[in-house]
Amino acid sequence: MPSKSTPLRAPSTLVIASRQSRLALWQAQYVSDALQKLYPATKIEILGMTTRGDRILDRALSKVGGKSLFVKELEYALADGRAHLAVHSLKDVPMVLPEGLKLAAILERADPRDAFVSPYYESLAALPAGSVVGTSSLRREAMVRARYPHLKVHPLRGNLDTRLNKLDAGEYAAIIVAAAGLIRLDLSERIRLVLEPSESLPAAGQGALGIEICAERADVEAWLAPLHHHRTAFAVEAERAVSCSLGGSCDVPLAAFAQWQGELLHLEAKVATPDGGRVLCAQGQATPSTLAQAVALGHSVAAELGRQGAFEIVQALSLHAVPAVTRTAVLTGSRGQSVSLLQALAVAGMETFEFPLIEIFSTNDQTLLVKAFAALKHYALVIFVSPAAIEFASAHLPLQWPTTVPIGVVGPGSVRALKQYGIAAPLQRVIAPHQRSADQAVRYDSEALAAALDQTLGLASLNRRSVLIVRGDSGREWLADTLRAEGAQIEVVSAYRRALPVPTRVQWTRVRALLAGEPHAWLLTSSQGVRNLERLAQAHLSEAEQSALKRSPMIVPHARIAECAAAAGFRYRRISMTDHKNLTQEAASKVPAKPASGAQPFLSAPAATKPRRAAGVLWLWLIWLLTVAGGLAGGYVLHQKFKAENIQLIERQQTNERALIEAGIKSQQALDTLGQMQTQLVQLTGRLDETQTRQQALERLSQKLTQSRDDWMLAEVEQTLAFANEQLQLTGNAQRVLVTLHHADTQLAASTSPRALAVRKALGRDLEALKATPQIDLMGLALKLDAVLAQVDRLPLAGEVTAPLVVPTARESPTERQLPLWQIGWQRFKAGAMQQLASFVQVRRLDHADTLFVAPDQGYFLRENLKLRLLAARLSLFARNAVQLKADVQGVAAALTRYFDAASTHTSSALESIKQIEQAAADVALPSLEASLQAVRLLWLAFLFAAAVLIALLGSWGTGQVLIIQAPYRIDMSIHLFGVMLVAAFIAFYLLLRLLAHLLQMPARLAAYRMRLRAAKARDALSSALSYLFAGRFTRAEKAARNASLSVENKNAAALIGARAAHQLHEYARRDEWLAQATASQWQEARLLSSAKMHIDAHDAEGALAALSEMPAQSARRFSAQHIALRAHQQLKHWPQVLQVIKTLNAHEASHPLASSWQRLQQVAAEHILHECRHEAQALLMGWHSLPLSEQQRPRTADLAAQLLIALERHKEARRIIEEVLAEHWDASLLRRYIQCAGQDPLPLIQRAEAWQLEYPDDPDLLFTLGGLCQQQKLWGKAQAFLEKALRLASRSEDSVTLRAEVHRTLARLHEELGQRDQASEHYRASALAFELKMGGLPF
User: Fold this and answer.
1) Which of 603, 878, 932, 1094 is buried most deeply by CB count within 10 Å?
2) With the C-alpha atoms ordered 93, 95, 97, 103, is the resulting torsion angle positive or negative?
3) What whole-number percentage of the chain has pLDDT above 90?
4) Residue in 54, 80, 92, 251 annotated catalytic
5) Which residues pair with 264 in a beta bridge?
6) Active site residue 888
7) What are the strands of the beta sheet with 279-286, ordered from one edge?
8) How far apart (Å, rounded) are the C-alpha atoms in residues 566 and 1023?
């Protein structure tokens, strides 16, 4: 695995497999959010799956296969590549993982304790005798039975929401669940008491999350490494080692809990009998520095339990446990094609294993498919041979299928696939095979489709008509050959291609386990799949495994597949597959179940009796049998011992091989990482050299440009003039160019050099020329040219016959379809003959001589030539080429006058437009700025020319001498040599000055280089600090942040990183010092947000709010600040502020993933507000009206408000609240509360309830409410009628135990008031029985 300091290449996509319960999806989303922070560019998806443990809720886990039922489907998703990782609660993960899978990361542990949840009682000790406690764990059950033998413990299955719903429905007096699950789903308010480990020791791994991956995916393990929490991993592995050593499972009440006490890891474990009569306990502690030492601690504690008798308890429970028989159906269809079959098999209680034998891909070239669907109306029939053909062709299907084109498909699966894309009867005609007689099974193949087409359309009707067949790249040609034999023109296009899949190593491991004896059956749905299975088996399985495969039951739905299976030697059974029901039933019946280990074989005949022998012979036989039995027993014991040692040797060898492979992988990864680092170092060195080279070049250029202010200014003016000239020629915007030239003139005015004056003169001339340029409407002229161009086809030629020719078409009109064929032929012949006669001779008057030689069919070329001239004129117009524009326009006018009819209004209008364009052509041209540009560019040439002239003049002076006298010496020197020496002296002096300037600038350059070096080191330190912070190495992160803070540029960012690291180390004083260093104004918001976040993490809500109060109002409204404020107000129990913050969050972030948690928190806040106002009616009403509308319409909140108002004798307000909520949400609890709103006058409530009865005539809760109200009004007859009807309706449902008990009790009181003691006693007994059954959890 790469080191943490090496930057990992972020994955493009990660898929997380998870169960679909709310808690499991929360856990998967938690891991997704953590990975998203590490890899922001990665696309992370969650693949929700329903496991077999989620589906089987009517039996205890120990009876159906244990906790592994919750992870098998997720592990299959890892094996076949649908997911990269799976997130589990570690207490659900088996102690031994399947081969090829491993735990890559264990996240930091949440609260591992158990939670006591009850709506009425505060603790287990407060429960009355006989109360029912629900739990799904034998560990918790043994704990309760041991400490509270007077309580009843019943199994409780389902996800967390299901368990809480069962508790609220009254099926249990209390339940015991894991506290971590309630806290993660923001249901901590449901916890009445958290059970300490001394009262309920947690299970191994409870509260921790584990991430499972394929062992061969080292890259995924490297991506997950930052999430791994080492201290939690040590504790959890020690706990799991206890369970693994003792062979713990769901059949054994076993608990193990390890917790850190400083650097000491303390481990406690317990094993008990299910009735709690015997509890064994052992403890141990160690200071592990490696994972192996933590596991060793677990083994030592398990050994202590074993010495106390734990192995006897485990063995006894394992003998009594009935192993669940898991039936597996192997699906061999292509992936994604068996979704409905998977669901049907899951409903039937079977486990499914996908082993695709065919992979289907889209074809590389779909040109033929696109062309075929573009011409659908030309086909008399379109045939899709399979649902795959429809799916892969769906991207090219038309939005509306032509109603005149029927569709042929092979089976109902294709009919359903077409229906998904809006193609179904009665709008479209879909032809499929159907059952022809009651005693004949329907077939779905090409033969059956051909019979259906013959019966529906008639194959003879397809003679000489086109038929399109959409299929795969290979397949049977029978249907195409049959239709060709009937005269149809067949066109076959491929929508997909097939390939042989490559199963993974994990999939082959699962296949070998099935072949070793697990009950299973293969579902083969194609002949190609049978052939591929045979090829794969020969390549990957041994001869014994191939033999077992051929003996395995194979289910095939078609005779052709059966023939292929028989040819391959497979044992098969053919069924008729009209739907998945037959296939599911056959799969369930064909899968054999393993007999119990203790079952006796059947005897073919009773044993024959032998005549009695003498006593001596019997003793000899007995001694011989005992000797043989002893020998066999000894041999069996030795064989088992050798077998166990052989297995241990094989396991050790496999362990060594895996360790060697892992070491090789890690070594290769280390080498690859080193190579990558060296490559990156070389690249960085090259980039540094390139940057330094560019910097030096820029410095030299800057020095050159700063040598002369005039040179700089002239260069800038030259660029400005060049840009202005380009803009002028491209856009023609003279006003903008004038502004640019004025700006250049202003720059030149600041200089008094002769060169600047010369440029200003040329610039002035260009300014005057631009000011004198007239304004031309180019777009108007272009529109006129476009109008003439559009009229060219309508301009008549001189003497042209304008009557259009009638060209006969090959299509038949509706009238002709009703005439005989000979009349249709005669009419067409007559029309063609008249047309030919009319075209023989044409007499025209031509006034212009040139048109005399124009043939009748040359008008097309004249018009095209005219269009080209008009387009050329348009280009010349936008290019502002006045000469070319005028020439083109004149050519157009000449052509119009010479060849076209001048008497036509269209021709005269076109000539008028052309004359207007010709008049404006002279003003199209714009002046150029070349004069000013040449003035700037020729200054240097002029200077060089002047220098050359000066040198020539000096040379033409003749042979002058320079006399230098320094007594007693005299020096005669040629004047030319003297001039050269002066120039050389000047150059040497100039170079000396330049050298001196460079030497003076050297300290400043050296200081700048050192500053750049320090900044680079600070940036590296900042990057290291971030890496250490994300990796959880907070001490190193703070040290790196201190180094990064030495740079002013990185000081603020380093301060925030250091503050975060110090906060994680619980060094709050250093944290505040770090925060004080982030003083830049643009970092204030980040500093305050970080401070608030750290305060809220430390449960200092007031400090968090104080930090948020310093933020500007606009920043405080952002999501991060609002979310921190929400948590702070929740900790301080400022419930009105909680509602206000949630309102703001919903207004701006309604689609946020945390919106559901805000909704739950809003419900909790509303209930707290109502409880705080429960002592005063006015305050209670004000609190109710202050709640959001969505919360006022929630039945539970309305029920609480009504209950509190009734306690304050405000029945009218309670009634109004209940009626408003019932108008939106019909709720049974509100109906029962409605009875208490009657007060002194229940009559209006009876009238309102009777109005509801018209809408809900058979609602037992409403009838019970009416009965109670009528009883208050003393309407005894109506009350009894309503109550008895409610009792009859409630008796039909097993979930209405509470309602039946209350109805019986109300009827008993009614009969008491009527003096009917016997009936009252019967109802009282029935009510008591119902309550007893409800508390006992038995079905009624």
Assistant:
1) 932
2) positive
3) 11
4) 92
5) 261
6) no
7) 254-261, 264-272, 279-286
8) 66
